Amino acid sequence: MRIEVTVPNLPESVADATLLDWRRQPGEFIRKGENLVDLETDKVVLEVPAPEDGTISALYGKKGDIVTSGQRIAVIDTAAQPVSAEAAPEIPVSAPQPMKAATAAEKVVPPLSPAVRRLVSEYGLDPSLIQGTGRDGRITKQDVLDFVARATLGAPESAPSGEVAEKARMTAAPPVVPVAEAAAMADEAPARLERRVSMSRLRARIAERLLEAQHNTATLTTFNEVNLQKIFDIRDAYKSRFEQVHGVKLGFMSFFVKASVEALKRFPIVNASLEGQDIVYHDYCDIGIAVSTERGLVVPILRDVDRMDFAAIEKAILEFGQRARSGKLSLEDLTGGTFTITNGGIFGSMLSTPILNPPQSAILGMHAIKERAVVEDGQIVIRPMIYLALSYDHRIIDGREAVLFLFTIKELLEDPARLLLKI
Questions:
Q1: pLDDT (0 to 100) of residue 83
Q2: 391: which residues sit within 8 A by CB, 6+ positions away?
Q3: Do the beta carbons of residue 201 and residue 359 sit within 8 Å?
Q4: pTM score of the predicted model
Q5: Residue 146 annotated to the active site
Q6: 394 included as an active-site residue
Q7: Which of 26, 151, 282, 294 could share a disulfide with 168, CB 3.0–4.6 Å?
Q8: Exactly one of 16, 77, 146, 394 is catalytic; which is it?
């Protein structure tokens, strides 16, 4: 029985996909559920599993082709069975034959640098006899000098003879080169190469959304600094017990998520979005957590975060991070969201202005935590401090709400008991 494999149904927001990489080739046997091909969309890389066991009869499309929902991409013959090791025909193995050494005429000599050409000409050498140790087998100046030295010392292998050897023996040192020619005689510099690589679908989509945010929103950013000493004290006191009970480490991100949720409840306009002439208020909190991957930045969504405790938040963030870096996120994981948190501090950023993630109206940027001197009760003390940045769409969020929203997060983080008491 022949089964057609088609592109899975793509969401309405995703028009098509790019054929990224075939995992199997025609004639190979594939098991049900094994990945046949990777398809890259604007948001994620989708794996297309084999629907049944069988042998691949045909593949349609090559890497880089654009495919749409329902399009046929492969045919699997379920009647064919894998060849067992016992049934495999015995292939006689003949004794390895010695490889014929390439002659000087057969050997292809890479281009010579000016310095090498001068030495080869000076000694009257045949470049095909010299073994190159440079990039791509190129002959360096040192290779030529070593070759000449072997001839001078009477080395048996690859040693030149006759007039060349005699001239080498009479040459006690490399020829003197005028200063003006020194640069030309230097070892060949690394090639100044350029590469042109097409942007991935994800990178192109990121670029498109960033421009969209810049052109279609009135973005402003407000800043504040937060003293994290009490959060450090809580983590130091309870992190071991927390991990024993919940099976996950107590990080900083759950505190910032919890503080953001409480602030969003107090300032619902920050959790809203603009659609045409309407302001859409969301009575739920779906917070996106920006995750950096090799393919680019993705923002999986923590849904109904206002109903999650610290442990649930930490587990969800850990799982999203692992799935994002292994390319296992689904389209549903990246759809929606009412607010976003991004942490440039893990890369060492001290201060930045995050860009909005449309149609959301605000995004919180975290930065590196550094010990700094601050004044408390008239005394200069050292405290772990962090700068926070809130970028917001000034079309619907006034400066007053934005500043108070960020100040609320500051208060909640500097006195974490407020998160439990909701005051």
A1: 56
A2: 219, 220, 221, 353, 354, 355, 356, 362, 363, 365
A3: no
A4: 0.64
A5: no
A6: yes
A7: 151
A8: 394
